[in-house]
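Structure representation:
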Amino acid sequence: MEVTVAAVQMACGWNREETGLVRLLAKISSRGAGTLRRARSVVMGFDAAAASCRPQACMLGLGSPTRGDSMRAAGLALTLLLMALPSWAADLLTPDPALSPEQVVTIQLSALQANEAGTDAGIALTWAFAHPDNKRMTGPLSRFAQMIRGPQYRMLLNHRAHDIRSVSRTDDEAVFAVTVTSQAGEVVGYRWSVAKVIGGEHAGAWMTIAVSSPVSVGQAI
């Protein structure tokens, strides 16, 4: 059964523009009976996230949500999506020009946070959103997985929490400051760079081109 974007918007009573998220929900809902009901719960989660991210002044009618507020709300919604849908849904999450740079980083971090040691599905999903230039340097997947388990990136696996902040953005590249609290409680920072693919299979899609070495921020209380 094919589920259209319009069907998702109608089921969720959601007519606003969040094209990447809605397109993912439509694609996933087409694969499983009852999944559209889960889409509704994810959208409700997005609404709750958006409300919680607004500064107090906005709640009082004194201002509008900033781009950072919207980015955090969309990130929370995508995290809810990855957590709420069946395990096979991860196979449908592929690079798409409709996904924003922020959403790409959120997908990768959420996948690593939920990675299962037996299958490494989270690492595989992270690899799927690696820029072709990055893949040429870090691939194949088996070598990439070994790198993620190494001393520089193992803190990302099954981490407790993450925070994504925009640093810069052009038409072709976006840079984010990512703070991660590891499973052991260590807090580290990464510089996460995402670039638009110029040609080939994923032309026009945003994909991660580089992630810096970690910088220690301290220890979580």
In short: The chain has two domains: 1-93, 99-221. The chain has nine helices and five strands.
